[in-house]
Amino acid sequence: MDALFEVVVFLAIATFGAALARRLGLLAPILLVVLGLALSFLPFFPHVRLDPDLVLVGILPPLLYVAALETSVPAFRLNLRPILLLAVGLVIFTAFVVGTVVHWFLPELPYAICLALGAVVAPPDAVAATAVARRVGLPRRVVTILEGESLVNDATALVLLRVAIVAATATTGGVGVGDVAREVVVAAGGGILVGLLGVVVFGYLHKRITDPVLDNALSLIVPFAVVFAAEEIHASGVVAVVVTGLGIGHKLPTLLSAASRLQVTAFWRLIRFLLEGLVFLLVGLQLPEVVRDLDEPFGSLVAITAAVLAAVFLTRFVWVFPATYVARLVPRVRQRDPAPPVQFPVVIGWAGMRGVVTLAAALGLPLTLAGDTQYPRGLLIWLAFAVIVATLVGQGATLPWVARRLRLPPDDPVQDALSAAGVQQRASRAARDRLDELAAGAPEAVVERLRGLTTSRANLAWERLGGTERETPSQAYARLRQEMIDAEREVFRAARDSGQIPEEALTRAYRDLDLEESMLRQEAVE
């Protein structure tokens, strides 16, 4: 009962923090981490120790799954080169740089465990990258690259971490190239195979299910089922979830009914909101647990912490600029993908926030090394925690300011609207052609109403090309129709209160009016 009460309290605080962040115009992940840090100093507030398995198996899979569902597969494929350079190349580079820095400060530590810490702090967090990048309003391609990196880099880091821990705790012999290659093949290749199997199995089930509630339930099961299947064969659950999410998300328009898509979208929006808030709050609350085992001299602690932070920060920039421009020295690459403005690699380099995966991986470091040798495990956990707080609060809080100062070339809204209007024109023409085929025998008034509907949808798409100085016909329609809906609701509510209609009639009427209002609001946002 006490544990359930604590969960409810944490969710309530996370919700309050997210609401406060919106009110103050701040980024919710940053405010929640700071709030968690502040609450950790209160002696009466419950101190919670994060279970690494809970994070990596219970929290991360659904967050990765919903991020993959919303990722455009064509855009992901188009940016595959920069995504892999960051998600694989940069993670390995950062891990070795940080491992070398730590080994230089602590030469008595085996290099393998130093490399393990490097793997822990190497991957930017999927949750932080998605939450911050979309909130800041970065150009679409930058967001795609950052989200794609965050979907894949955890797998790279966790595989490297697994190899480093095996090397650090091995009692006989070492870890050879063949062992590393086998680990990579099993983790990555097995994860891909399990993910593809998940696409086939759960895609088939989604296609067969027509009940939106069952579709919701199945959607919640998918990431956990895929992770458990991957872990059973010692493959990467992260890779499996990402592959399944990308595949299901790409096919979602043909797998789910309209009602299921609406419910699944709303359902995952709520799940992501609660889990993200809970995750960042819990990160801040780990401070007492992290500092408990620290016994290093203050000067040494500050020096090694500053060195690791500098290594994490600088390696990203050292890698991003050559990765962006060196490949374009090849004429074929340059012709297919011209070099972006320098602001792009700068903002990508700045967006290196770490998060809960780093903390969970740090807490999963072994208690002892080979031969039950003790090592300063508490110091390594502190370094990982310092990287999380410094990058999330420091870089995350300043990312909007950096993006504004850089004046990144924005996506062209006119070109986007023009493309959408052209497609909508073709879609409306196809709808009218289908109507003409089937109109025989239908009442003329119904046919004319449907023709008017297709015309109004086409007009709405073209109206978005105009300026915002004057109210468009569609905006006027939405404003007036909203007032009419409010008036209808009031009549139904009064009739229910006076006993003229049963509660079921009110529910049906409100459902129809709510759906219509949601469409009006969506068109207004677009």
TrEMBL record:
Its main location: membrane. One of its GO terms (molecular function) is sodium:proton antiporter activity. Residues 12-404 form the Cation/H+ exchanger transmembrane domain. The chain crosses the membrane at residues 24-42, 54-76, 83-104, 155-178, 184-205, 270-287, 299-321, 342-367, 379-402. Keywords: Antiport, Cell membrane, Ion transport, Membrane, Sodium, Sodium transport, Transmembrane, Transmembrane helix, Transport. Gene3D superfamilies: 6.10.140.1330. It is a multi-pass membrane protein. GO terms for biological process: regulation of intracellular pH; sodium ion import across plasma membrane. It comes from the Bacteria. GO terms for cellular component: plasma membrane. Pfam families: Na_H_Exchanger. It is found in: Cell membrane. The keyword Cell membrane applies. Belongs to the monovalent cation:proton antiporter 1 (CPA1) transporter (TC 2.A.36) family. Na(+)/H(+) antiporter that extrudes sodium in exchange for external protons. This is Na+/H+ antiporter. It comes from Micromonospora tulbaghiae.
